[in-house]
Amino acid sequence: EKLRVGQPTISTQIKNLEESFNHSLFVRKSRGLHLTEAGKVVLDYANQIFSLGNELMEVVRDETFSKRSQVQIGALDSVPKSLVQSLIHSAQKIAPCSITVLEGGGDYLFRELLAHRIDLVISNFPPTVGDTKQYFSRLLAKIPITVFSTKKFKSLKKNFPKSLQDQPFIMPSLHSKLRHDLNHFFQTNEITVDVLIETQDTSIQKLLGNEGMGLVPLPEFAGKELIKQGKLIKIGSLQGVTEDFWLITSPRKFSNPIAETLMDSFEWKT
Questions:
Q1: pTM exceeds 0.85, yes or no
Q2: Of 168, 235, 223, 229, which is closest to residue 197 (Cα–Cα)?
Q3: Whole-angstrom Cα distance, residue 22 to residue 249?
Q4: Which of 112, 119, 131, 202 fits 259 for a cystine, CB–CB 3.0-4.6 Å?
């Protein structure tokens, strides 16, 4: 849209804004202006302000006065889809709302949370970005880890877990807490396994396990459906190894009431 103001006026307004924020919003590169990191943050908030302004006009014009709340949820790639689904259902039971789910790595999602661009993060490890005092975290569940496989590995049930020696495994990625805990378990029990595939996506782990490519260590509930379908069997549980799931938010001046209620009362029934 045209602003219908001259370039000198815009330049003056930008300069005043930069002085007000005490930060440069633009940097000159290759004969053009590019946003600085501070400029990107300001632009994001400006877009939200304009969006809310437009929404306000629509609500008042339509005389419905029934603003639908927005809930922004961040979910790690490694988090079970059933947990995300359960959180969405719980949010919609609290009040009519529009929900956006953003998937990604932990560092990225925690930065988005601190910038208040998302309301909640579902994670399988506590916050790792910034000061931990900047977060509110609640442990949702500690789920025992079980080794699943196709029936061709059923003989490994005997003498478990020593029977896992030199067996092929489909493992979570090295950077994950669960992988660290699995490595610790095997080292403590003097077991060496053959890591064939590493992936953080539990859906891929189950698909490859279903093909018989190797053994898959998963939260106990994750293999239940495949066991019912006769695709996988339970080899055994790894004593003392669990995967923890957290719901995390960051305090803000104006909190999202739905997110606040979820932080206080959401329960995940596995």
A1: no
A2: 168
A3: 28
A4: 119
Which residues are within 8 A (CB) of 239 and not within 5 positions of it... i.e. 6 or more apart? none
* CB count in 10 Å sphere of residue 230: 9
The pair phi, psi for residue 132, each rounded to 5°, is -60, -20
Please name each of the domains of the chain with its CATH number.
7-62 (1.10.10.10), 69-141+246-265 (3.40.190.10), 143-242 (3.40.190.10)
Three-state secondary structure along the chain? CCCCCCHHHHHHHHHHHHHHHCCCCEEEECCEEEECHHHHHHHHHHHHHHHHHHHHHHHHHHCCCCCCEEEEEEEECCCCHHHHHHHHHHHHHHCCEEEEEEEECHHHHHHHHHCCCCCEEEECCCCCCCCHHHCEEEEEEEEEEEEEECHHHHHHHCCCCHHHCCCEEEECCCCCHHHHHHHHHHHHCCCCCEEEEECCCHHHHHHHHHCCCCEEEEEHHHHHHHHHCCCCEEEEEEEEEEEEEEEEECCCCCCCHHHHHHHHHCCCCC
Q: Is the dihedral of CA 266, 268, 177, 117 positive or negative?
A: negative
Amino acid at 254: F
